[in-house]
Amino acid sequence: MIMDFTKLWDKQYLFGPNPLELSRSDNIFFWIALVFIVAGIAAKILAMKNQGGSPKNVLFGRFTRLFLTTGLLTLLWVGARFENIPWISIRFLVLAILLMWLVWLLFIGKYFVRDFRKRQKTWEDEELKRKYLPR
């Protein structure tokens, strides 16, 4: 049960008319969509546990938007694929959605590496000051 990635370069697979039943790769895209939606909900729960204004809250908020948007768009594609709607149900579209997810994830990674740690340290120092300053 090895994945066949050679189909990704086949015009018939990407743009061709789809058979009426869902293929194995379509079912994989469905499960990816469900996993992304669950990850988005988990990131939202983690964002709500942090204090407002916290850099962790911002980071988890970005992950929430990333996973929920991608998961819902992929789930919408699976529905269009199930209903065999032309132009929307082509597999190229779901691969473009997953490419968008990857680019978005790289931007979040860039934020994490460059800004997050500095902002978290500054925020923790400010919280410590507020804790000991009189009100």
Structure notes:
By secondary structure, the protein is mainly alpha-helical. The chain is 75% helix and 0% strand. Helix 2 (24-49) packs antiparallel against helix 3 (55-82) and helix 3 (55-82) runs antiparallel to helix 4 (91-132).
Task: Give structural attributes.
mainly alpha; 75% helix; elongated
Entry summary:
With 135 residues, this protein is mostly helical. 75% of the residues lie in helices and 0% in strands.
Give the helix proportion (percent range): over 70%
Structural class based on helices, strands and sheet pairing: mainly alpha
Annotation field: number of helices: 4
Structural shape: elongated
- Note poorly predicted spans: none
CA radius of gyration is 20 Å
Mean pLDDT: 86
Bin the strand percentage. Answer: under 5%
Distance between the termini: 64 Å
Number of strands: 0
Question: What is the H/E order?
Answer: HHHH
Describe the sheet with the most strands: none
Question: Layout of helices and strands, plus pairs?
Answer:
Layout lengths: L10 H5 L8 H26 L5 H28 L8 H42 L3
